Amino acid sequence: MPEMVYWACGHGFVHPLITPRPMLDFLQGKSIVFDCAAIGAMPANLDSSGIFFRLHAYLGSTVSFLWRMTSVRYESLWPLVSALVGGYASGCFVLVRLFFTRWFAIAGAIVLSLSPVMLSMVPYFRDFAKAPFFIWALVFLIMAVRAKGSRLSLLWAGFAGLAVGIGFGFRSDIIILLPIGIVGLTVGLGPKAWGARIAATAIFITSALLFASPILKAGKGGSFGTLVMQGLSDPFQTYLDLGSAPYSFGSRYSDELVLSSVAADLRTDDRDWDTREGQLGHSISQAVSRSDSYVVSWLPYFAGDFATQALKSAAWVIVFPELVAPGRLGQDPGVPVRAAPNIVRATNPLYDRLAHPWMAAVCAVGFIVFFWRVAVRTPREAFTLFLMFGALLTYPVVQFSIRHVFHLEFVWVLAVLSFLRFPFEWSKLRKVMPGFLITVIVTGLLVISVRVGMTLYQDQSLRHQLNALLSEPREAVDLVKKPVTNEMATFGLPLPSKYRALVEGAADSMTPRLGEQGLQWDVRAAADRMLLTFGGESCQPGAAKISFQYAKREGIWQPLDHAIIVPLPKERGIYSTVLIPAFYRPTQYLSGVSIPSEYSSCLVKAERVIGQTGLPVILEAVLLPDWRERSLHRAFGGFSLSLNR
User: Which domains does the chain have, with CATH numbers?
Assistant: First the structure.
């Protein structure tokens, strides 16, 4: 957000077409101080504030003000950092205090405030900044539900909306509390309090939208779809410890891969795609803005996986100490975990000792006891909190990463404190035990039934879609075998003539130099669905690592080269089929396939699918001869404490 620096230096909230290198180095953290004199004569290519700044208007404006009052250096941000960290700590205390005595609340707040996970997020300030607003909005919503009078309900609902609206200007994630708050206020205020229920909900919505209006006017839309696609990629599936599947949404967490996929699918039937793409710094690509409807068109085919991933996300947050076990560090697709400054790393040994299966059992039991304790006070509040917490725990399904769930760390603390209080409150708890246990069993069976139903639907619908794809017309692709090098046999793939103009044309926004300017505003890509057939009489059985190479021009950003393991048939005369996307972009295109030389005779043919399909082009799959009899979904998996494999 160069606007912050320009305003701090007295030039207004303006965005340059090309950010000066000294300013770019400062904004990327390569230098910690910026001298306004380095701007020199104001460039003529300045324009109004860019979309990225408008989407983080409150964060950007606060930072600009601090730099203007002091100097343009990161050390000058200590008042803002301190205020938000303090807001998070005090919010955690109040949140725990809503359910426990003062000393338990103090203990819980200390654990949360000194957590090496939370403190590791502070340097990633845009992600951390949402945490205090998130916690306080949740506190105000619970207080609104508990309020004895309608006036207090309206007051707390207004404060909750204010926290959501202002927090939205720091980080957009917090907007998830808008629908969650509506559900909480609608269900939690009692069956006869229709007037208070409607008024509190209206004030909450109005307050949230009013304070969020400057950001909503930025006009961003559709990015949810691209986030879902990234969240379905292999790194996130591995981090969640889900079961394997014969298909993949990409071997890496890559903006270029996902945006290229959306653009390639939508651009095929849209001749005006290129002319409608955006302007640097002031708009976003259609690959982002149209991604919501695009993903909705095919996501039902993977409904079972989405349900499984949502439930697994919730389970990992509940057993949070297991999620950040030493053996899992470095595997998060997002940011480093438990990498806080040295002064607070003394808390790391505590988390090391908690990373045991018995702790997971304590958290799981304590989570149930938490609602049990609330049910003693009022069943309606327990049901309301169950709905709110259920949504909070499952929404990270979009992209499960510590930077998206660290602010939910309070869940395991509430669970453990509830577990510790259980023996001392047994006399109260047993009074509601029959009804509560029936509710727990019914709820559990309902959740399991929904997940099983969605999984069965996915098996059927995905099998139908893959059969339809394999039935589409195909076109043979000539494979040019190259000399064997490093015990690998490489087959060259020719560049189709219809993509030559795109590949040899001007680069789009997905290059390192242009990508530094902010959100992607121009994405141009095409893709073919390729089918590779492996097997034959001369093919020896085994598991071959097949590598896909992309020819690259200067200025490459995120290479699309990758490799997959293909099990080769044990019986002669039967074949395995591999479905892969072949992308064609201004900076790279699929140019070759490499196979270990001992398996070089196994590649029988390569074909290009000509017909259309309902499946996204990003999907790749390894279809064994009996794939139609196999499950086509991911299993729930386990809770491995080590992913270093």
Answer: 50-220 (no CATH), 221-241+292-471 (no CATH), 474-611 (2.60.120)
